[in-house]
Write a structure and sequence with these properties.
13 strands, 11 helices, three-stranded antiparallel beta sheet, about 35% helix, six-stranded parallel beta sheet, 2 domains, alpha/beta, GMP Synthetase, Chain A, domain 3, about 400 residues, Rossmann fold
Length: about 400
Amino acid sequence: MELPANQKPNHYAVFAHCFTCTSNFSAEKNITRSLSRLGFGVLRFDFTGLGASEGEFAESHFSANVADLVDVHQYMKKEYQAPTLLVGHSLGGAAVLAAAAQIKDIKAIATVGAPAEVSHVRKLFADQLNGETIHGNTEVSIGGRPFRINDDFLREMDNTDLPAIVKSLKKPLLIMHAPLDKIVGIENAQKLYDHAFHPKSFVSLDGADHLLSEQNDSEYVGEVIGTWVKRYLPKAENRMLDAEGEQVVGHLNLMEDNFTTSIQTRNHELVADEPADIGGNDFGPSPYELLNAALIACTAMTVKMYARRKEWDLKEVYVYTTHSKKHGEDFNLGVAGDTKIDHISKKLRFIGNLTEEQNTRLKEIAAKCPVHQTLLKQVIIDTSLIKDSN
């Protein structure tokens, strides 16, 4: 379950992964995380025989995948809240279209790289069967990975009329597809779009591949879906995570993330992370970048308030900062040479019709901003432990 920073979604969605992928596939995680940043609670799960799910892949007929989606929706409705959005990638996109026809609570559907015919999957391994009829389980290679299939698995693919299902949906539909998709051609998107009734939308994923291998592509997909679907869902107020009487609360789910930390204030949320080269996912600024950001924001605001009070012609303020650790001897502070001291470089640029004297005074004022002063003083941090009631 991917949740927003406040852990209290405004709406819920269910995500269906691509054929032979799993719920932990990086593109799927990026899509659901982008949706969660927009206030959605998104459940992603593994279809039968994939990832952490039990059963055999050969038992994962298309109708079984659709039934899985219906079951997941019913579970969500009972334990949390009825999901109103279904999102599916590749064959998962075909599955959410079929499932949406069976679930009245669904208000909108979004597909990514979905085939217009379920039997399209045959092309991934047709050359390995050489036109022969399958008896029992047969192993095929899909994307370099071995999977066992049977004749029921193939028969299921021929018994689903996806365009007819789409024509009967009459629910808001967003179709996203890469024009140069080499696995599922763009003509599939056109066929689905032509059969759908309005409101329907199409977004071209220019430059992306079928599996959304580039992080920017999968994050973009989540952001577009989250923005698009809000038009079809009732507006909900942002329900905040209980900050236990404090100003800010942060949350890190170690079961899902390495360092990605959701941070919530009373009315806003942001994400902190570490760069990929030290094990993070780089989904947000690092802790020290956030420290720099606090100094930058406070500096710019303080300078602006002073210039406005003086009625000076200040039009723009740029603040550049960098945090680093330097040897104490570099500052002539009388400390040992191997002692490291925190150092923040702050550079200012003022745009406007200002005299040299005014520029100098604004530089002095910049050093008087509250965050700047806090960083120069001794700070006492009182840490206490809140015991988990569970």
